[in-house]
């Protein structure tokens, strides 16, 4: 690819990224002059956008520098394995070099540069696979100008950087398939490991690489396995030290990436986990809003929310059990919350040896009964309709603009600019998914590239819709590769029209 094209991709991507975020930050400050803490709508040190997830990634570096260990809670050593260390190490590096105040002022720009480099690396990857300068250039421009991945760059959470490292892994893999596989394949494994240590879901990128190397490359099976081994060795070179460290701090547990104890990922008890699993039987869980409403009722001694909640449920949410049964379970959930709040143990992250309140196990059992009854009464909806059509469509039919606090006023009282911006993002997002499916079934492309993109995007999508509630950012690492498909589809259409 010509050097001029590479330079243009880098600077256009950098300009778009900084422009999107500076405009958003300006209006976030303007709309919240007192800087009251609001998710996506307040700033830290006047520079980065505040997120409720900051706790999960910025706490360990601060505790480490204070001599308390690389963990979330100095009183609970097992929080040392609650999160992978990737983003925390990135943040720690800035803290050590610049101090907290200036780290937050510099991080938006270091992450912007990383984003622009990833756009260039994605373009170069496409060039290495296709030998098409047009495909590579258009890919770099589409991805570099996309508002979705760029929209997280001023945050201090994993979404700000993890897609870049998946791209760097693909770039070195594309290079390895042309020259010196042992060296470049090993480096590809290193970058895929970094991506996974930032966001564990990116381990699926390694799985997609393995699928691509096995089914997409030619030659004896021995050579294919050898290539896979090279990449895996690179991957394990960085992951194994973290695993060994986890074995030491947990005194004998094998924790490859991170671990959740007592089935409680968010400090709300296992009852919240099983509330979410029940909700996933029929929809996309919104349990945070439900829990906040219950907490508010508990604090003021009111009743009535559960009845209103049940009245608003769709008919298909009740299968195999009655609304009265569901009402009873939700009331028990509220009573359990009330007991824990009164006892001062609500929101505690328990150690493995701790005994949870008895109502936690009881709520798990109650929700498991509801889930089993729903499966038996509506298996088709449980296994196909709910994950693919109800939760899945929330990726496709969305503006994916939640990261831009300036586009989302508190009372949803949108002005014309916000409506137009969100509308454009909606069309762009839908267009990317449409192009992905056209690419998958109708576009001839490099076999290796097609297998990687299809494997990674589909595996990530299926894992999310079947295992977690849906937020657009969970599929963020797939967006670079949907940009690739958009470029190839557009060029194919232009080629056919020009004939």
Give structural notes:
The chain is an all-alpha fold and 499 residues long. The chain has 19 helices and two strands. Strands 1-2 form a two-stranded antiparallel sheet. A hairpin with a 3-residue loop joins strand 1 and strand 2. The protein is globular and about 70 Å long.
Could you describe the largest sheet, including whether it forms a barrel?
2 strands, antiparallel
Side-by-side strand order of the widest sheet:
1-2
What is the tally of helical segments? Answer: 19
Radius of gyration: 24 Å
Instruction: Note the beta-strand portion.
Output: under 5%
Query: Based on the structure, what is the oligomeric state of the protein chains?
Result: single chain
Measured as a percent range, the helix fraction is 55-70%
What would you call the shape?
A: globular
Q: What are the segments in which pLDDT stays under 50 over at least 5 consecutive residues?
A: none
Termini separation comes to 25 Å
Number of strand elements: 2
Structural class: mainly alpha
Q: Name the average pLDDT.
A: 94
Order of helices and strands: HEEHHHHHHHHHHHHHHHHHH
List keywords for this structure.
mainly alpha; two-stranded antiparallel sheet; 19 helices
Question: In a nutshell, what does this entry contain?
Answer:
With 499 residues, this protein is mainly α. It is built from 19 helices and 2 strands.
